[in-house]
Design goal:
8 strands; two-stranded antiparallel sheet; single chain; alpha+beta; about 210 residues
Length: about 210
């Protein structure tokens, strides 16, 4: 199964029921200011759990749904919501990302670079990608950090942000970080994290390890 394809379908599904798969914890005011909203994160996590347990499009097998109650998360924290500058790559190139199936690769467009800063002044960057022939405005950010293999899924997690029309400042809210479908069901083929997106810090936010690992 195509993890990224199903992820995109899932995004559109949740959008139509008032959600966004990016677990967007932000709201846009008239001046496009991004505002952290913890209550929205909590509510959307509840509705996402319902999707996983009851929706036919869930990555869970029927036997998994029987024991599933909810995903495991770090408590929401504004400390892991970073304002980031976005630099569009002037000549986006197509790269072949390795996948969870080893021999298979996923062609994706290397689209832009996000630069953000911790409170101590440390600077970090992650690359945002788009799938080929992508129809929506989502920028895909696969990433790893020092929690992988301990508190979080060993292969890394995903983040998505909606592309801004002015390509200016973004809020990278790691409270909305989520596991790829292959963390729940090994039948899915999921892009792995490129080395440029391995962060030398602990992101104790977003989704934790699943009970199915």
């Amino acid at each position: 199964m195509n993890c990224l394809k199903d992820m995109t379908y899932f995004t559109k599904t949740l959008f139509f029921i008032g959600l966004v798969f990016v677990f967007s914890s932000c709201t846009f005011e008239e001046d496009n200011t991004l505002i952290y909203d913890e209550s929205t994160i909590i509510e959307r996590r509840k509705e996402l759990a319902d999707f996983f347990k009851n929706d036919p499009s869930s990555p869970l097998k029927e036997i998994q749904k029987e024991e599933f109650t909810a995903m495991q998360y770090f408590p929401p924290s504004e400390d892991y919501a970073f304002y980031a500058d976005f630099t569009l790559i002037s000549k986006p190139d197509t790269v072949q990302l390795l996948t969870s199936k080893g021999s298979e690769k996923r062609a994706m467009v290397r689209y832009g670079i996000f630069t953000f800063h911790e409170q101590d002044g440390s600077t970090f960057t992650v690359t945002g990608f788009k799938s080929l022939n992508q129809e929506d405005d989502m920028i895909f950010i696969p990433f790893k950090d020092k929690t992988n293999g301990f508190d979080t899924y060993e292969a890394g997690r995903y983040l998505e942000v909606e592309e801004s029309s002015d390509n200016g400042e973004y809020l990278l809210d790691f409270n909305k970080a989520y596991n790829p479908y292959c963390a729940y069901n090994k039948e899915y083929v999921c892009p792995l994290v490129p080395k440029d997106n391995i962060l030398p810090l602990s992101i104790k936010a977003g989704e934790k390890r699943t009970i199915f690992q």
